[in-house]
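Schema walk-through. Below, the input block comes first and the output block second. Nothing else is stored per chain. Lengths vary across the set, and this one has 345 residues.
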Amino acid sequence: MYKCAIIGVSGGRARGHADAFRHVKRGRLAAVSSRNKDKLDAFADEFNVGPRYTDYREMLQKERPDLVFVNTPPNVRLEILEAAKGAGTPALVVEKPIAIEGEDFRAIREFAATSGKTDDGPKVAINHQLHFHPRRQRLQSLVAEGRIGEVRFVEASCGMNLAYQGTHSLQAIGAFLPGRRPLSVFGQVSGASGLRDTPGKHFAPDESLATVKFEGGVDAVLRCGANAPRVDDGPIYMHKRIAVYGTTGWVLWTMSSWETSIDGTRDGGSHEYFGEDVHGQAALTEAMFDWMENGKTVHPLHLGAALSDFNIILGLYQSALHRTVVELPVEPEDSLVGRLRKALG
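--- output ---
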């Protein structure tokens, strides 16, 4: 039975991790950490966790967890990755986004050069649990099996900005285009409210629009923010969708519904997000155990894939600032967030 721990208990995702252990067969939640003692105790009491720490470093050293879930603002992710490496922690699942701009992207990319590949670094995956939602898994399988023919075009969107949900949408594009390398991005952004300093440090323009070219002649369109389509009457975080169009059909997924057109036959229905989510989160965790047991069974949400997705975002920013198509991968420029604040403020 794998020993698991959580760093950071505020927000819904920490609860999602803890709740998923009802369906996790090979692990148990053994310890939690948060700087806020009141929140820490309330969370640990609710989920019946005894060991609790206000210093995550102490938790890593004393508890020696096998797998750690990291739910912190992006500006401290590298610090925790390095502390986990120093403590000999075998594996981590880190909340998205993995980075915010070029400087932290480069630092984490350097960390990733050994992560999960040698005994010197932990295996790291990013918590895009939507990838493992049962309905998403089924639609991804249909596309992979060629049921809609050869993929030609993908469109994805989310109601929140690139930092809060954009990487979910980018990861969804990649999930339906496995193995296809992004070649270029052409983007536009607007609105500076999301670039203001906040405790969450999720800096991004309010709205973004990008076209991304992939190998094999596939184009993808990404829309994030108020310019994205609204898919139902739910809260803003529920407005995620992806549609994949092939030569003989298409599939569509949203947070609450799905549709397919295969061999001239259309089908569709609804699903309940929270029911899907608890099983998706559990499946993500079990996939980490698979990777820990067999290094060749690499987690589909591994750190390298997340860095590739985030490189598209950095290219989008540079495309908007320079008003040009940006070839990928791009070596990110410095101070992109500050320059976007100045340009959009």
